[in-house]
Design goal:
The structure is a single chain. The chain is an all-beta fold and 265 residues long. It has two domains: 124 residues, Sandwich (Immunoglobulin-like), CATH 2.60.40; 113 residues, Immunoglobulin-like (Sandwich). 2% of the residues lie in helices and 51% in strands. The chain contains one helix and 16 strands. The strands form four sheets. Strands 2, 3, 4, 5 and 6 form a five-stranded antiparallel sheet that branches. A hairpin with a 7-residue loop joins β13 and β14. It is globular. The two termini are 19 Å apart. The model has no long low-confidence stretch (mean pLDDT 94).
């Protein structure tokens, strides 16, 4: 299995050619033949030029289902775990099931293989709809030309032991927000001794001449429950790490992005 940050400390030769990548924006449940609510588990994998099986963007077992209450809800994505290496061909493999009372009664919800061919990509944001078994699922992803990989770490500086709020990331050429953290979804997670926030996903691909933008929201605990919003941007680097500090509500945060190319060439 390939890891992120593979070349962040490598010697990058002058004239190094960057390769293309894909950012997974959304996996949406368009329709369900069995109605709602439903409890969904299984996997969604993206296979690329490096690895055909191990880059999960959604992975839940039967004891950790995601509850879908209505049409149009999206799966909570937890990947990819490294930048997608797109050399003209990739694929998505969907294998989703519905949990019933007994495991032997569980139903296949969606099962499909979707090819992504570079020559067919006509716009930055791509949509693929799959009607399979008992559901219709839409995959939305962005094509990132000449990309750099950013691996994200967010640390709470001295202060509260957990983070109540929401963190998303996007790129300046594609405004769709990718969810990194939301305490309304999975509760406020207590940070460890290193005070690093456990993110849902931490890797994003960025066009070399665009920016990586973080949006951070926190809600106060007083009666007004006022919301504070802050934005911070990073310029991609060929290698190395970049840090910046930001205050949002009662939180002082350090945002770190480790940059790497994705293919040595």
């Amino acid at each position: 299995q390939y890891c992120p940050m593979r070349y962040t400390d490598s010697l990058i030769r002058e004239g190094h050619e960057l390769i293309d990548s894909l950012n997974m924006l959304c996996v949406k449940i368009i329709s369900s033949d069995v109605g709602y609510p439903i409890s969904v588990y299984g996997t969604v994998i993206i296979g690329d030029s490096l690895d055909m099986k191990c880059n999960y963007i959604f992975r839940r077992d039967r004891d950790n289902c995601q509850h879908i209450n209505s049409q149009g809800e999206s799966l909570i994505l937890t990947g990819p775990n490294r930048g997608v290496v797109f050399l003209g061909n990739a694929f998505f493999e969907i294998d989703l099931k519905i949990r019933e009372g007994r495991e032997c009664d569980d139903k296949q919800f969606n099962k499909a293989l979707i090819d992504v061919v570079g020559s067919r990509i006509k716009s930055v944001v791509q949509r693929e709809t799959v009607d399979s078994w008992r559901s219709e699922v839409e995959l939305i992803f962005a094509y990132v030309k000449k990309a750099l990989e950013g691996t994200i770490e967010i640390q709470i500086l001295p202060g509260p032991a957990s983070f109540c709020g929401k963190i998303t990331v996007c790129t300046t050429d594609v405004s769709s927000h990718m969810l990194l953290y939301d305490s309304d979804v999975h509760g406020a997670i207590v940070v460890g001794d290193d005070r690093v926030i456990q993110l849902l996903r931490r890797v994003v691909s960025v066009l070399a001449d665009k920016m990586l933008e973080f949006n951070i929201w926190t809600t106060s605990s007083d009666q007004d429950a006022s919301t504070t919003h802050r934005r911070i941007e990073f310029t991609p680097l060929m290698k190395g790490a970049e840090r910046d500090e930001i205050t949002c509500g009662i939180y002082n945060l350090q945002v770190k992005v480790v940059w790497s190319t994705m293919f040595k060439g």
